[in-house]
Amino acid sequence: MNFSSDTSAPAHPSVLEALAAANTGLEASYGNDAITLRLRQRLADVFGTDDFDYWMTASGTASNALALSCFCPPTGAVLCHAGAHIAVDERGAPEFFSGGGKLQLLRGPDGKIGSEQLDEALARINHDFVHETPAHVLSLTNLTENGTAYTVAQVADYAERAHAKGLSVHMDGARLGNALAATRAAPAEMTWKAGIDVLTFGLTKTGAIGCEIILLFGKAREKKRELEARAKRSGHMPPKMRFIAAQAEAMLKDDLWMKLAMQANQAARRLADGLQSQGVELAFAPEGNEVFALLSDDQVARLRAAGAVFYPWMGGSQRLVCSWTTQAEEVDALLSALKA
Q1: Which residues pair with 300 in a beta bridge?
Q2: Distance CA 120, CA 56 (A)
Q3: Is the distance from CB of 332 to CB of 305 less than 8 angstroms?
Q4: 20, 122, 138, 258: which has the fewest C-beta neighbours closer than 10 Å?
Q5: Domains and CATH numbers, the chain
Q6: Which tens digit of pLDDT belongs to each residue from 236-288?
Q7: Contact, 234 vs 224, CB < 8 A?
Q8: What is the pLDDT of residues 64-92, one digit of tens each?
């Protein structure tokens, strides 16, 4: 009954098989190998476009910080939700990688930036007023840190507003597959077609070992050389990148990443329904693979005594995360322990 995080799950067997297959012979270093170059076509098929460039890292924090640093100068700011991963879980990495860029934290319900709050922040931008830090980037997280999903329409609306003020738009897609499964949207619709300039596309939480892809769409491709330079300077230019690319190939083949995301979402739905049937209130509507339950101290103690693993969350809820390996029996065991 381990509901601690989807990063606690093992790698999918297909990923391990791909790594073993890649572990033969000699290959060029630093992304010039055959597997990394071949990955371009796979990504083009997934996102329905050839108008992109990409780079890979082993962690979501590195991907977010590198991506944002290419669009936010040291004297600029990034607009994001106050509960966004870049704000509360990355130890100042975006600020560090950008050389001093600032995060401007916005509020909004369910982990999403509020419409009015976004408009207010955009209206405050004044590059001629030297005393304030003007925003250069809008960052959206999908799924949000509260397990909710922005719809395609919401992403497109916010991106259009940001672009009108001259901002670039970044999406933290650490759980993009779960968001797509929740909204039944296509990758292209949720990203570049909706106005996303740079995407950090996460496969680690979905079933890889450590595989994050930074995608630069359209005009943002002009940042590719800067992205590579910053990756090198910060120690995120893996010499044996083929082993990250091999993971990506395995996850994207036959839409495995989406199938695994749907499995995790379905497990979370089963968990949420079971909790609510016992009268447990949920802090947020479960749209992806995370459930935030408002449990009493007695209920928490009872579940922990039964061996359940989960974490407390901001606002007094308990976060229970389902992964691609979460089985129905595991969910039912937790629900039985709660009932007992």
Answers
A1: none
A2: 35
A3: no
A4: 20
A5: 11-254 (3.40.640.10), 256-339 (3.90.1150.10)
A6: 999 999 999 999 999 999 999 999 999 999 999 999 999 999 999 999 999 99
A7: no
A8: 999 999 999 999 999 999 999 999 999 99
Helix (H) or strand (E) holding 79: strand 77-81
Collect all residues with Cβ–Cβ distance below 8 Å to 265 and sequence separation of at least 6: 178, 181, 182, 288, 289, 322
Amino acid at 243: F
* Cα of 169 vs its chain's centroid, Å: 14
**Packed helices 115-123 and 152-164: angle between N→C axes, nearest 10 degrees:** 10
With left for phi above 0 and alpha for psi between -120 and 50, is residue 83 left, alpha or beta?
Answer: alpha
Indicate the pTM of the whole model: 0.96
Residues whose CB falls within 8 Å of the CB of residue 229, separated by 6 or more in sequence, listed in order? none
Q: Strand order of the sheet with strand 77-81?
A: 52-57, 212-217, 198-202, 168-173, 135-141, 77-81, 102-106
